[in-house]
């Protein structure tokens, strides 16, 4: 007896899409999802874009002379904008800056600066012993001699102490200082502290940063006024020239803040005997820009090793540190004016080490010792004037007062008057001349002038580029899928053509053969559509 088996096939989209079922679209019957909507074309985007001229050049419509002219105008404007934008970017990358000065800015009671002075003559001739002359021969140029005046031959002196030599043979302030007044009050050598420089033993007035003297008024008579005797009779005779030989007579002076050491051999100015020198000071507060506009040293950076006794960074302290390192590397010792606990160089190599110090240090950013300027700096501007002293009447008076002759007074006495011009300070600040906000403003102006665009217009263009690019990528990644078998929800579908190819014989003959084939008889649905996808099914 023949067995009739009815196979029920369920298509998920048969009821939802009857038109596709009638057309016999196999992928729709299998539930294939449709792709996303295609992106806008260029004409559609140009007609809706806020970029001026793009809709007339690339929008929908016939091509003609008018559209060509609009396209040329758009390209010309775009090229002009790009040219201006490149020029603006180059100007910004040069990091230009300017100096803004605020003259006569009110300041609180100004602290009087530190004043360091040195006699240009380093050693007093009368204070040199035979051992000193022997040890300082390379430094002073004087020939060594024994007690009988003959050249030394096999003489043996004890090892020299350079600090002791400078202290003992240097000019003593108590002998040089003849009068001292500060803001109308008397002062003396006790108000000065000893400091060592390349000129030997020097003296600094108002050196303590924790108890600096204030200046309560401006003008002459309100600062420091001193009279000095430079003692030219104590100057060393010149036997032969050395690098330390000096032909001048007078003193060297540096005005600086209490937070920086004196660097008087480079930053000081000279004061000559026979003159009264007036130094009018103006406090200047400088503010420099750090990178990338300048090369100043910001306070937030890691603190460099500083000199003992100076808590703040300064260019002078940095230079002295570099000099010390150069001397230690070459001579394995330090000079007297360089702080530290290392051994002090002996006099016989003192001048050699000093010369090596000057030759080995570079002042620029490419040198072995680069000392950047601090971003906040206080310095003192100076205006120097002088008059000759003494006049005839005062020369006789001073000669009687100090038991000297008039010629000695004229050749050795000087008066130094240092004062504030006014109790105001100048604030000079370095500012960026062309910052990021100015660059953006100029770019926006050029963009609006040439192409009528803004930031939102650029976002529109980027959005369209993203839309087109993403659609292209999806097309590349997507591959056509034409499966013959699809299993969804436990329902299997088998193509009719594949079924016939797998059958070893005609379906009816196999069915009538009493089970010779494993396939069951074909089922002809009496009401099925003729010759469609539902024509024959075998289960």
Number of helical elements:
18
Evaluate the radius of gyration: 49 Å
Low-confidence stretches: 11-35, 486-494, 506-539
Determine the structural class based on helices, strands and strand pairing: alpha+beta
Helix content: 25-40%
Distance from first to last alpha carbon = 18 Å
Question: What kind of sheet is the major sheet?
Answer: 7 strands, mixed
In total, the number of strands is: 14
Mean pLDDT: 77
Topology (elements, then pairings):
Elements: H1 18-23, H2 26-29, H3 42-48, H4 54-58, H5 65-93, E1 97-106, E2 114-119, H6 130-135, H7 137-140, H8 162-169, H9 173-176, E3 177-182, E4 185-186, E5 192-197, E6 200-205, E7 224-229, E8 251-256, H10 264-267, E9 269-271, E10 275-287, H11 315-331, H12 350-360, E11 376-388, H13 392-402, H14 406-412, E12 413-432, H15 436-450, H16 455-477, E13 486-488, E14 491-493, H17 496-502, H18 507-512
Parallel strand pairs: 10-12
Antiparallel strand pairs: 1-12, 2-6, 2-8, 3-4, 3-7, 5-6, 7-12, 8-9, 10-11, 13-14
Describe this structure in words.
This is Acid-sensing ion channel 4 isoform X1. It comes from Castor canadensis. There is one protein chain. With 539 residues, the protein is α+β, with helices and mostly antiparallel strands. It has helices spanning 18-23, 26-29, 42-48, 54-58, 65-93, 130-135, 137-140, 162-169, 173-176, 264-267, 315-331, 350-360, 392-402, 406-412, 436-450, 455-477, 496-502, 507-512, and strands spanning 97-106, 114-119, 177-182, 185-186, 192-197, 200-205, 224-229, 251-256, 269-271, 275-287, 376-388, 413-432, 486-488, 491-493. Strands 1, 3, 4, 7, 10, 11 and 12 form a seven-stranded mixed β-sheet that branches. Strands 5-6-2-8-9 form a five-stranded antiparallel β-sheet. The longest helix is centred in the N-terminal third of the chain and has 29 residues, at 65-93. It is elongated and about 115 Å long.
